[in-house]
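Recall that a protein's primary structure is simply its ordered list of amino acids. Everything else, from secondary elements to tertiary packing, is in principle encoded there. The following example makes that idea concrete.
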Amino acid sequence: AVVNFAPELAVDSIRSMFDFQISHDDEERSQDRGMVIDCVFQNSIENNARNSKPPLAAWAVWEVYSVTQDMEFLCEMYPKLVSYHDWWYRNRDHDRNGIAEYGATVHPDNHDRQSIIQAAAWESGMDNAPRFDEDYGIEVLENRDEAGRLLGYSLSQESVDLNCYLYAEKDYLSKIAETLGKSKEAEMYRQEAKRVGDFIRVYMWDDETRFFYDVDIAEKRPLVERGMGIEGAIALWSGVVDAEQAFCVCSSLMDEQLFNTPMPFPTVSRANPRYSPEKYWRGPVWLDQAYFAVEGLHRYGYKEEARAMARKLIEAAEGLTDDSPIRENYSPETGAGLNAGSFSWSAAFFYLLCLKYA
């Protein structure tokens, strides 16, 4: 969003995040080389290195480059993006099948099952989403290197949003590599994306409910019993789905009993038994996920639906068209603003929705 009116600030915002990337010569955190930590604060004691966050940096770098055409920035960021991408597969792919899981780092505060599941949910960005509820029997799995050294932990579910983000990241890395004249690396990422895409379309798809879900790592079956969540729509945004699957996901997104609420795209479907419209990631509308859903609809040719839902989001959000603060999230039933005010990423996505669809 910011690159549209302050390109230098957009570039520096990305750089500032990677200033805290775990370096290859970090003796204390060598197992996490390449990782970008969750949160950085003015008081460093508050920093959170228990987990990372979804891999969207390559998307951000490419979007910024598309506006600035700054090749030096692309050259600077490419090795950092590759190092972060590699970290996911070294530290968050328990069964080494090329499909990743959310998890947690080797950290004093990640000391038992409960704390590791908490960190993994934070890593997804969807802190208390139902799919991470402990009573679903989630297991914590240790990830070790060939020498037996503990690298970190994974949950016993391969998450659809994470692997769609990684699928998209491979596509962006291939574009960046091609732009930089690294044709072999570009082809490698294209081939890897094909393998990840095949897995998502086959194993993360449920024929009966016609939607995408996380899958059980051992049985490779979609975890339909945990109900529909907006994470399934990331498959549209990433471009991984086929035309028939896109039609089905679009139908679910436009269904008033599922995701087409008075303010669209609750994080948990209305039909989910654990739907709660004012409980953080258990129902409220978060603008990042809503934006990705709109973009996904548009990508697959559902342009009128995308425009209609974007306008509905803008019109339903309490106070958006006057001088009220933009909120962290919103009630899907009323559009009432919830939680923190003056929330930057909500503002960024509202800006993009207005720019592209209003």
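The radius of gyration is 20 Å. The longest strand covers residues 150-155.
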